[in-house]
């Protein structure tokens, strides 16, 4: 389903980093814990109100592997995705992305690493409604300073690769839920990242459409590391390994 030749098109993207796909481990979490503090709320005891989202979480995601995260709401799945994407710095522990310790980076450096090496697929797509499918896919390349012709070529190639070559000029409101998720996946691939993180990628889709999206993610996972969080058994069935979380702790890791 997915045209893997899209990797070749990135050679024309100006300023792109060289991939490090020979590295065995794309993502490594070691002893990761995280607490969220309130905005000034306190218990009567005077202790600051905090919520422990993760407790000593450790696992790895090799290249070419899909790892699923399962667990009830509040178990820490989304917090792990945010930590891997460099959107938060954990309270304790190490999160390495392609050998880089994200916690040791400045905010600007983490942003740069995320833009170059992470693709994010959201449950509710997060497409800009006023932009065409092609313009939505090209957005990450605008931030990278890629020229407009190269952005258009890259976005067109990716949309063709996910089966939307005839929908490139359509607005999100003119697309089905499955088509919008395909646009979101194409956008996540715009910078040819090493790692894809997906948060409930089929949660807004019907069974048949969700199956098509899962097939696409499976194809993508052959050459990247994919970390997918879901409650859905069919979504987790595409994973090579499933990490089960409860109350912020790993209770099972079926490596």
TrEMBL record:
Key words, A-Z: ATP-binding, Nucleotide-binding, Transport
Domain ABC transporter: 27-255
Location of the region described as Disordered in the Swiss-Prot/TrEMBL record: 1-31
UniProt cross-references to InterPro entries, sorted A to Z: AAA+_ATPase (IPR003593), ABC_transporter-like_ATP-bd (IPR003439), ABC_transporter-like_CS (IPR017871), ABC_transpr_LolD-like (IPR015854), MacB-like_ATP-bd (IPR017911), P-loop_NTPase (IPR027417)
Keyword Transport in annotation: yes
SUPFAM superfamilies per UniProt: P-loop containing nucleoside triphosphate hydrolases (SSF52540)
Keyword ATP-binding found: yes
UniProt-listed Pfam families: ABC_tran
Bias (Basic and acidic residues): 1-11
SMART domains noted in UniProt: AAA
Source taxon at top rank: Archaea
GO molecular function terms attached to this record: ATP binding; ATP hydrolysis activity; transmembrane transporter activity
Cellular component, GO annotation: plasma membrane
Protein name, entry field: ABC transporter ATP-binding protein
The species this protein was found in: Natrinema halophilum
